[in-house]
Amino acid sequence: MTFRTAAALAAEGPADEGLHVLTVSELCERLREVVRRQPQPVHVGGEVRDLTRAPSGHAYFTLRDDGAQLACVLFRADAAAASDLRDGAAVVVHADLDFYPGRGQPQLLVRTVRPRGLGDLWVAFEATRAALARDGLLAAGRKRRLPRFPRRVGLVTSETGAAVHDVLTVLRRRYPLASVLLAPASVQGEGAADSVSRAIRRLDVRGGVDVILVARGGGSAEDLWAFNDEGLAHAIAASRVPVVAAIGHETDVTIAGLVADVRAPTPSAAAELAVPDAAEIERALASLRSALARGLTARLRDARLRADALGTALSPASLAVRASAARHRLTAAHAGLRAFVPRLLHHRQTLDAARARLETLSPLATFRRGFAVALKGGRVLTSVAGVAAGDSFLMLLQDGDVECRVVRTRRR
Amino acid sequence: MSGGADEAAVTDFEADLAALEQKVESLQRGTVSLDEALRTFEEGIALYRRCSAALRTAEQRVAKLVEGQDGLEDVPFAAD
């Protein structure tokens, strides 16, 4: 028997009549389907070998035990989360089983990697998570908004830990208006989950709090284990007021954190999320104050324009009364707000000016004060150049007119 | 329940802030008369001062929930 190259075979055209010949790709595709039909995902324990991190960010390693090995891929996002993964580590991976035709071998598409020993706990974690998801407790639609200005903040944590200090410090700095009701709980070890659940229920039943913070500082995964308890998850979900959970550090994922309305990376951050920042409110208040002043300015401007439009129809006397009343109010307002004194003074001057202008625009008032208007040929005389010696013109006074003749003109 | 006065102050704070926002809005809508505008302004300033004072003078109160003879009760909690 002689073997020819694939290229030669292709040149010859179809052969092996009567036999169903699969291509390697077709067979691999079948294998892939078989593999993918296995129950997914799987939890597999083993030792990490030949870990390489590709420039793309993906990580590749071999998971092995005494008798077998399996290729594993950790895609970029998940690889970043497993930055502490090392060769030789005993781990449990949570993965989808797949078949990679390019190498003709099965492989695990790893989602998460946990140190062995925690493996069992982790399987329990996943089981609890799945149960809660089935019950709808993890649905995004369940998440409640935190109150904008909580009057009373409930705090569930250990009385002696660092968390209580951190939370109280941040609450005091940001928003001392909110009082705090601490419900002490054991946050680690036997009975911790029940203790925390009971504290949450007490705060909730007891009433009076607008939000509940459940906080615990950093620790090992075992230390934080109480917060993966299903009963605790239900206690959080049953709370009538929103719950903020801050358990351990940012990278620690707990069931309590998943069920809570808001998950905070640290106890201090939970406190930051639970209350507004007084400094920010002060800034908002200042801008409201400015908006009040702007609004009043605009109203005053409107009023002046309206008064101008009314023109001579307004008697100077009544306008003076109004102006003085407005000035009175303005004076009172301005006494109440020293910061706006310069601006208010400006408004008052504007009003005074408006009144003065209205008075000058009223011809009656002008005549009454002794002014007269000279008319020549129906036009108002405004210059000595308009007349010459011997010309006659008309002078209008308050109660009639005078016919005049020019004796001499003198220019000033 | 302890801290009653404190809570009332905070309730007022939220209501005052909302009222202040409403004053600003009505002043900006521009349909009010000059008299009304001046009154709104004065009331707004009073609300502003109350809110501002509440923030500046507030002192945090911390209580602890403990199991007493008649069920749960609050006792003062001294931080640190």
Note the overall shape of chain B: elongated
* Secondary-structure element pattern of chain B, one letter each: HHEE
Taking the alpha carbons of the first and last residues of chain B, their distance comes to 23 Å
Strand order of the largest sheet of chain B: 1-2
* Rg over C-alpha atoms of chain B, rounded to the nearest angstrom: 19 Å
Number of structurally distinct domains of chain A = 4
CATH top level assignment of the largest domain in chain A:
Alpha Beta
Mean pLDDT of chain B: 80
- Tell me the count of domains of chain B: 1
Structural class of chain B comes to alpha+beta
State the major sheet of chain A: 5 strands, mixed, barrel
Helix content of chain B: 55-70%
Overall, the morphology of chain A is elongated
Rg for CA atoms of chain A:
43 Å
Oligomer: heterodimer
At CATH level 3, the topology of the largest domain in chain A is Rossmann fold
The helicity of chain A comes to 40-55%
Written overview of the protein:
The complex is a heterodimer of chains A (about 400) and B (about 80). Chain A has about 400 residues and is α/β, with parallel strands linked by helices. Chain A is about 40% helix and about 20% strand. In chain A, helix 6 packs parallel to helix 7. The N and C termini of chain A lie far apart (about 135 Å). Chain B has about 80 residues and is α+β, with helices and mostly antiparallel strands. Chain B has one domain (about 5-75). Chain B contains two helices and two strands. Chain B has a two-stranded antiparallel ribbon with strand order 1-2. Mean pLDDT of chain B is about 80; it is low at about 1-5. Chains A and B meet through helix 5, strand 7, helix 6, helix 10 and helix 11 of A and helix 1, helix 2 and strand 1 of B.
